[in-house]
Amino acid sequence: MKKLIYIFFILGIITSLYAYKVHASNSNIVKNSENIEIINRRIFESIETDEVSDYVESTEGIEFVEGAEVTESVEKNVDDVNSEDLSDNYYLIFVNNTSDEISTPSDQDQERQERQDSNDFIHSMVSEIHNLIIGNKNTYKDPSKLKEMDENTQMSKNRKKDGEVKYLLNYDDYSNYVYPISTVNERTVLYAYLSSDLVDTVKSLPNIIDCVPNRRFKFDSHYTESDILQETGWNKLKVRENADLHLSILSQGKYSEDLIGQYDTNYYYPGAAGQDIDVFIFDTGFNFRHQEFSNSDERTSKCAFGIQKGKIVSSSSSTVCNTADLEKYNNVHHGEMVADVVGGKQHGVARKANLYGIIPEGLDYQDEANVIAGLQYIKDHLLRPNKAVFNFSFGEYYDINNDSIVITHWQSLINEITKMGAVFVTSAGNNGTPVIDKGKGIIKYPCAFDSMICVGGIDNSSGGSKNMHSYYYYRANASNYGHGVDLYAPAYVNIAYRDSYGRDREGFVGGTSFSSPIVAGVVATIMSDNRDIKFNTNTMIDYLSKIGERNAVKGLLGDGPNILVNNGKHTVYSLNGKYYGCGIYSGRKKCASSQCCSANGNCKSSSSSSCTSKEGCQINYGTCKKVTSTVEGRCGNGYGSCHSKYCCSASGYCGKTSEYCSVGCQSNFGICN
């Protein structure tokens, strides 16, 4: 009796399908034909299409999840999916997998029978939809996509046989184009790639509940990509999630615990990431076999040459050079660490920059002859104009009154290379003294050279932690300072390197030796993202000064500039989405209509003295009163606004040219392009 009932059930399905085929015979959709083989076996493959891969690639490093929700932009994508231009797409087909006509004597047998009947019915439905797709390939905008699915399926099979891919479920029993992905009680979900012409046809099949486009979710984020691109002017945004502190500091303004709920540990940077920019690192040994430099498809990382008593020598290996006896010296693996800070994949600022190690004969020092000879060789044989950055993490004090011919020649050589479109970056030193100490009659080179970006350090001594505190903005005690130092950068960094025994090591190290390569990396990212600008050292100093975070460094002595390096993104976001202030230092939040946003990011009553442009009131985030500067030509916090139709430059001067109105322009005190 049980078998008889089951036979009648199957005959009912066949009759329904036949009646459906007859009803549809006048349609332009081919339901069945003699040249289409009805599928009796189950064929299912995991499908990975270019369309899906492209989408994943476009969000790489940009968005990450606390919770996902459908946003307006996603809804727009869904509308696009339903449009004529994007009619071929993935759909979710909801199927009623039960029949009320089946019954068996015992509850246990009935459950087993219903489960089998449900599976058989789903397989028959998959076969039906598969045949619809095969018979109507001409309705697809891009039929080659189906062929591509078959090819990907075969590749997956081959990889599976080779042991490279191991599926957790048996996917060999269904179609490449349609297959089940979920069942809850009487409802089964099929995943199918359909043309728009097939959608209504599928909906009219027996037991089909609905057929809807597969919607995409945009991961919830505490920042907005479009806002960052508008603020920075970058061509493309990349984000390194939960990055080292020395990186996250570079891409946000001054952090305050009073304004945001949780420090943003992300490192935001231009997508070009230093690509096609050459960074020449004069330092101790290098080992480019470490995983930090493994992206050889994107850039070159190599030992360029060595220098022995002023003579240029080739390196015996392009990837490992001069590391054998480094453990004997204090500067253990200094060159490897510096290279990692410039361009390591995880710890580096510019992960796509070309890195060239220049190795002197001494493992714990540089000398004048070797540096001059190395510069000359690069100038004559390796330099690509407007694509070169030099990093010098070394220096020494000289007699300020002694006009050494060595210094004169060294300066002249740097000037020539700068004119060819190179940028020089060096460390300020770790003596805790002025770079130019007139009282002692000494001056530090190469820091004090013209056409040299000299970098001091801030005390972000977190012990390797990725969290920030406002007291990390103090100048590091050991960092040199004063006139001659152009800007400051984190002095403490997380690094990875491979020691002379081939062991991979990680560490947390400090000194302006690492402040310098941080800035060299920032320079490389700027150059790669602004290929139309012909940078050299002098124009780069000007650019970094304009986009830098002004007056952020605490505890400075002397008369040098107070600029913390920044790559162009100043908005401070909260990782947990909680904000206690306003303006760029508090997620660009706005105050109530009766309040202004003060210069330090607090909402104040509009009657407060903080609500005038002279006091730096942030005009885009509250109600501010414009106060025109009484000092002719000057503008900014402490001065006030420019006259109407004038821009306020980064350095606080009013004007109308691009020098005033573009990079670094202060919108709180005038107009900006």
UniProtKB/TrEMBL annotation:
Database matches in Pfam families: Peptidase_S8 (PF00082)
Active site per the UniProt annotation: 283 (charge relay system), 334 (charge relay system), 513 (charge relay system)
Family, similarity comment: Belongs to the peptidase S8 family.
UniProt KW Signal keyword: yes
Keyword field: Chitin-binding, Disulfide bond, Hydrolase, Protease, Serine protease, Signal
Protein name (Swiss-Prot/TrEMBL): Subtilisin-like protein
UniProt-recorded Gene Ontology molecular function terms: chitin binding; serine-type endopeptidase activity
Annotated disulfide bonds: 642-654, 647-661
Residues covered by the Chitin-binding type-1 domain: 632-673
Signal peptide: 1-19
CDD domains xrefs: ChtBD1_1 (cd11618)
PROSITE patterns in the record: CHIT_BIND_I_1, CHIT_BIND_I_2, SUBTILASE, SUBTILASE_SER
SMART domains per record: ChtBD1
GO process terms (BP): proteolysis
Matching InterPro entries: Chitin-bd_1 (IPR001002), Chitin-binding_1_CS (IPR018371), Endochitinase-like_sf (IPR036861), Peptidase_S8/S53_dom (IPR000209), Peptidase_S8/S53_dom_sf (IPR036852), Peptidase_S8_Ser-AS (IPR023828), Peptidase_S8_subtilisin-like (IPR050131), Peptidase_S8_subtilisin-rel (IPR015500)
